[in-house]
């Protein structure tokens, strides 16, 4: 699942609360079959000021067909059709944290970490 943190139609906490309830019900194995990716700055299913362009389908297909769950998904911010920023989308409850070096516009400068 993915959900935009800037969604004006649905409160983004709904996605988090749903996943938390799922984990509470199923237990620690939830991440074996379900993951939530919260997208900073993304509106409802797209748009917004964040890195809102990403391919969620290929990682899902790889997970189903080869058993490789996505540790992160690359997202991009496009301006006039050009990539100006990339970030990792991390499986909740992890978040992308700047490593302290490198460009703040480059996904490689970030790591998925638990808060």
Molecular structure report:
This protein has 115 residues and is an alpha+beta fold. The protein has one domain. The chain is 21% helix and 27% strand. It contains 2 helices and 7 strands. The strands form 3 sheets. The chain has a 3-stranded antiparallel beta sheet, with no helix packed on it. The protein has a two-stranded parallel sheet with strand order 1-2. A two-stranded antiparallel ribbon has the order 6-7. α1 (13-26) links the parallel β1 (2-4) and β2. It is globular and about 40 Å long.
Topology (SSEs and partners):
Layout: E1 2-4, H1 13-26, E2 37-39, E3 53-54, H2 57-66, E4 73-79, E5 82-89, E6 95-98, E7 110-113
Parallel strand pairs: 1-2
Antiparallel strand pairs: 3-4, 4-5, 6-7
Keywords:
7 strands, alpha+beta, 115 residues, three-stranded antiparallel sheet, globular, two-stranded parallel sheet, 2 helices
Give a short synopsis of this structure.
This protein has helices spanning 13-26, 57-66, and strands at residues 2-4, 37-39, 53-54, 73-79, 82-89, 95-98, 110-113.
Structural class assignment: alpha+beta
Strand line-up across the major sheet:
3-4-5
The low-confidence parts are none
How large is the count of helical segments? Answer: 2
What number of domains? Answer: 1
The profile of the biggest β sheet is: 3 strands, antiparallel
Shape from CA axes?
globular
Distance between the termini: 20 Å
Computed CA radius of gyration, to the nearest angstrom: 14 Å
The proportion of residues forming helix, as a percent range, comes to 10-25%
Order of helices and strands: EHEEHEEEE
Strand content: 25-35%
